[in-house]
Amino acid sequence: MRKFNPSLRTDQFSQYLTSVHGKELAKGNTKVAVCVDCHSVHNIQPPNDPRSSVYPLNVAPTCAHCHANADYMKDFKIPTNQFDLYSQSVHHQALAVRGDLSAPTCSTCHGSHGAAPPGVDSVARVCSTCHVFQAQVFDAGPHKDAFASMNLPGCVTCHSNHRVLHPTDALIGTSKDSICITCHSEGDAGADTAQKIHDSLVKLDTAIQRSDELLSRAERSGMEVSDAQLAESEARDHLTKARVELHSVSLSRVDPEIQAGLKVTQKTWQEGEEAIAELQYRRKGLLVSVITIFCVVIGLFLMIRKLDKNPSE
Fold it and tell me: How much is the pTM?
């Protein structure tokens, strides 16, 4: 292949032999996917061509040709709803709706030719190839060993695998929408910590929204608050970091980010109030000016009328 393109890999076949598909084929199972099932036969296009069956936007539908076909897959005794679940995920939304070609699709997590993506020793750890900081924080927390003792995969236990929905603060805590209560009972130490983390996140999020509404009102009224709005982005950064730190399930790691964010919102809220107060002051000054000008105009009008009636004066 070197004379066609020196950069082309030539280990695809050896990688394929390590995959579930390759191992099944070696056993004589001819129903499994081989090269032409994914790449077609005569209509082969480069992977970066939108017409290609393995173009990022087309990978999931290509896999679904087999994996969403219940009749075809019945002998393998595995679910066939993966494509339907993935279509509801935040990953699919990023890829198909927002057009982010770097968003995960089937081959990102399961590998293309091999049994797993290059450099990943198990599919259970594949999330950390993208979500690096979350994985590092999780590994430093108590859930890593707890999940391992119960033979539970880390990320998938809380976020699912194919139907990965957009995470919200409601996922942590003790409410009916929380995933924490699937293992913890309300009142135990884990549930109490989860609820405190949830309350902290909500407190900062609410403070940011409150400040943003005030600054937006001031901006719509013509006040200059761009510096405060720019500073507000720092509070959002602290909220994002706090949501990453919650994977440690440690309030001591989450709280510093929360307090730093609240400090910023207190300042931006104060600047918003000062802008609104200045607006009110200007309006009152304008009203006084208008009334004064109106009185002067009326006075001049009356004086002119008096002069018109008594020209001798």
Answer: 0.80
